[in-house]
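Sample intake sheet
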Amino acid sequence: MSSTLNLDPLTKTDRPTSHITVQKRKIGPTDLIAVEHGTTKAYFRVDREQEVMSNDLRNAVYLHENAAAVFGGIDHSLPFRIHTDVRTSEVPTCDEAVIATDNSDSDRLSAHLASERFLLHHGIEEVTRLDGQLVSFDVVETVPQGYTTVMVTDETEISVIDESEAATRKSQPGGTRDTPGRATPAGPGDNPPPRASDAGEMDVDIDISPKKPTVSFEEDVAGLEEVKQTARMLLALFDPETRESVIKRYGENFGARGGQLLLYGPPGCGKTLVSEAIAYEAANNTNIESEYGEVQFLPVKGGDILSRYPGEAERRVEAVFEEAHRAAQNGFAVLFFDEVETLVADRSDDNLQRHERSLTNAFLQEMGTDKIEDNLLVIGATNMPFSIDPAAARRFPLQQFIPQPGPEVMGEVWEAELSDLQAANDAVELDYDRLGEASVGYTPAEIADRVLGTDLQRELIQSVVDTDANAIVPDTKYFLERLREHRPKTIRQFVTSVRNEADALEGYPEMRDYVADQADRLGLSMQHGSTAGMSDAATDSSALFEQLVAAGEQSTGDTDNSSESPSDTER
């Protein structure tokens, strides 16, 4: 069954705002779904009582007309996507709520919202069904703030005020709630230029909604034990008890938090997974949530920030950090920049264009040591660390190489990717060690996306649909045959693109040695710098810890001079 549907939204008034109605056969047994429309994502319950069993719904979904305001209204030119594979843990829990209603039995209403685990939505008048009657109330304030949807629980402190007091609060400066903006339909061709708002500012069109991290080291990241250990040590100093013990035993300097993290290495080897797994680790295997509040993960692609309009990229960088600060204010935020090299190009490059230099300066300004609070962790990922501006590299004092997996880890990748298939074919034996050995040279992304991607899915479906086709036995031999039909491309393309940068790679010895080894394996020559005498520069856990605890000292005294050259930086 599909986990994502694009349906036609129709508004009604005879139902609660927290529920929507979808044909049961389309979504299965789930009672919690996510709706994505325009730039907004919100969560709703599935209304079983209102479900239409006939064909009246067809490809439609019913929701209360007030709920449409969550998305700034319904724009039928844009997709209305329903995501059915939603976990309850994805919806932030409401700690406090102030609601306004003229209903005389406010205590009963509060108890009802808690028992129903009611979903409160930002910026609308809510409607619930109480004793068979529809009762409306206005959400004046929620804690945490800044989320489209929060869930009421038995632990939620609900304060009820009357409508007149609510109107007074809204009339006070800063008392009016922001309302989600209407999604502007995109015209043909390129995106329209940014518009000037009434205040003279330029609107920023980038979606940076925080989310609950769901990728874990244990279940989703194969191998990379050294990387996992580095992440755990990084997070350890955010635990007050651990930090206090380190300071008591070794002094203040060694208890200083290590600051921000740069993940670098060849493409397709897990940098994005590792970043979200770090956020998951912070939420589930540390005391960070009990100290700061809920952990939120904010992933951003560098390419999504770039713009052809002057000054727009700089405004997007500012907007991203503003959202991260807002998330951190209500808990703990992990802000992840993929392709970070696109945002912090080296300003000593004579070929750098003016807007690229300006973007680097804007990023450095936001990453100033006085602007990153204790409960905000910034992670950058790049395939080309040598192209990053030296001052920006120092903003990431902890730098971790993510290597291409060897045969043992590639075997774990196969096992993770084929877990569902193995469960459905328990009589079939799969030799994951053999598959791992055979896939040396591939990246995990190539195995998942190419070898086990849509072509395989099409072949498996065809074997079911076509009654004349032979049944497929998905055993080791079958997958070895599939491997023979492909060739690893990612690492060859990567090494070809960076092999001329041997001199620049001197600052990143692990990557330098990796590129040299791969160039030798692939029969490619290294240029512009000798690789003779390259030694194994793998860093053990104790060295990484020293780098971590000393990071605070390394980040002091940074200068953002655009004339700075790579020679000014000690890596």
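Comment: The first strand starts at residue 4 and ends at 6. The radius of gyration is 26 Å.
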